[in-house]
Amino acid sequence: METKFWDIWVEGWAATGGGSKASLVVSKVEAPTFTEAIEKYASGDPEFKKYLAKQRDGTYTHWGCRLFDNEKDARKFLG
Question: Can you give the pTM of this predicted structure?
């Protein structure tokens, strides 16, 4: 399977008294799929991995915020 370079973005969040806009987690992770890019990055970052969760639909969240392969989709919720 051919690999490509993936960016991993996390959507914004809001909670009582706090929040953040979407942000880039890491750029240019080489892997065949976005899922494999997330897993590869997580395997080298224990803090990131600690709060990573795979959802029933196959997507991933970090601290409950969805992960995306592009900035546009990550900014759709809370900028």
Answer: 0.88
Q: Measuring CA to CA, how many Å separate 36 from each of 11, 32, 60?
A: 19, 7, 11
**Token pair recorded at residue 19:** 């929040």
pLDDT in tens, 8-56: 999 987 777 777 889 999 999 999 999 999 999 999 999 999 999 999 9
The verdict on residue 79 lying in a domain is: no
Domain span at residue 37 reads 4-69
**Structural domains of the chain, count:** 1
Distance between CA atoms of 14 and 22, rounded to whole angstroms?
A: 11
